[in-house]
Each structure stands twice: as structure tokens, then as C-alpha cells.
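Quick question, first post here. What does this chain look like in 3D?
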Amino acid sequence: MQKINGLLAATFTPFYKDGSLNLSVIPAYAKKLKEDNVTGAFICGTTGEGMFLSLEERKLLTETWIKEQTDDFNIIVHVGTTSVLQSNDLAKHAQQTGASAISAMGPVFLPPSKTSDLVDFCASVANGAPDLPFYYYHIPTISHVNLPMTEFLQASKQKIPNLAGIKFTHRSMMEMIQCLRMDDGKWDILHGFDEELLMGLAAGAEGAVGSTYNYLAPLYNKIIKAFRAGNLQEARELQYKSINFVEILIKYGGGVAGGKPIMKFMGIDCGPLRTPAHNISEDETANYLNELRKLDFFGLD
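> Answer (accepted):
Ran it through. C-alpha cells below.
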């Protein structure tokens, strides 16, 4: 399986004000990502509020994004749910629709406490799309599944034939490096913390998935270019700019709640977050915009 190289945007799901899907936004959304040299889109994940969507909505969203897929812009579909049967169904749909790959986090309800149980769950999900690469989505802060990923890879070899690697959104760089080095570097380990992209690159990751790549991809592509050219001081300075931004982003709700207002600022209105997620107020949004202006990232006036 070919490894992913570059940035994958963890996309937002566009909603109308009444909370229904707004699929009309996606062509312009995809166009912007392609113009920013983003490798592809990771849809229906955490940033995409995937767990808030019905199965039918997730399928409609997948079908709409797949229309924007090209040879150099891939669509990875997060198919994880609390039900292995529903996840398998979403995996089948992703393969039938023509997705590039699928992914699933561990089930958030009664999260497995044994690696073998997680492997069995993922095997049943991945079996729905045997022709597509499967990435386990390791994000313990959301899923509350915090099992050793080295054990997961070792135990999955025989049970998940289409396993490609891990979307690694966890703070343990030690564990990430161990996964990158396993089996002579066979596994595709995608780095998941935007504000630490440089550390992921230094560890050996070739691809990364993140929410801020939706609107700051040019900055992160400069980090990648500087790192690969050996210009470490430049890469560090650029990463520090990202950190300054993320500090403000966290102040205004983090990657999901704080990200949608930025998309609107940039002309891609993804609407509100779906309940029970918290939308920041108009006053907070105004203050947020003022702080973003000072960074001079977005061409805001």
C-alpha cells in the first residue's frame, strides 16, 4: 500500500443554520484545499462531527466528497461508530463509492480494555472494505481507548489484511516512533497534532492529518519544505507561528468550535456545530477575529 505523503485536511461538516447538511459548500471547499496543495480530505472524523451524523447523512457526505476526488486528492472516510455492524456498513459504502481508504477509531461506548478486543472490532469493520487501506484512528482523548499501538500492529497482522497504518493523534512520541520503526517501516503512521508537525516529521512521519490544514496549509507546507531541505531553524520558526495560532484557537474552543468561524472568515461557510457541541457567541467571534488579524495569516481586514 502506498504511503500518504503531505497534508490531509480533517474536514468540517457543513450545516445550514437549522442543523441540516449543506452539501452545496463542498465543491468550493475542495477547490480551496486543492489550491492549497492539500493531499486529500479525512471526512466524518472528529473535526467533521462524524459521531453526530446519521448513517444516511454520512453516506451522503461521503458521496459528495468522492465527486471531488482526483489522482492527487484522496478521500479517506472515517467509518467508526459504536456499532460494529454500522461501521461495517459504512465501510462497504465507502468502497462502493470509490473512497481511497477508510479509518475508524475505537468504539467510545464501553471502550475495549484489551488489545485483542480492539483488533477484533477493527477486523470486523475493515472486512467491509477489503479492497481499501484501513487506518486505525488512535485518539485516546476522544475515544478513551488507550491501548499500546505497538501491540495493536503486532496483533493485527494476521487479522486485518488491509491494515495500512494508524492515524496517530496521541502525545506519546516514543510510541509513535516505535510504530514507525516496526516491521522495517512497513506501517503508514500519520501524525495527528498540527502544532507538533515538525516533531512528527523528525520522527519519520511522511503524512499528517489535522483540522488547521483546512485553512493554514500554506504555512504547514512551508514547514515540510524547510524540514526536507534541512533548514531546521526556518522550520522551527514556522512551527512557532503555528503554535501562536493554536494558542488562540484553543482559547476560542479548539479545533472544531474555533475552526468553523475561520472557515467562514475565509469564504467557506460551514455553518454552526451540531448540538450538543458548543458554538461560540457573536461577541466571542468578534474578539476572535480581532486576535486573528494580529497574526496576519488570513488576509482579514
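The first strand starts at residue 6 and ends at 10.
The two ends are 45 Å apart (CA to CA).
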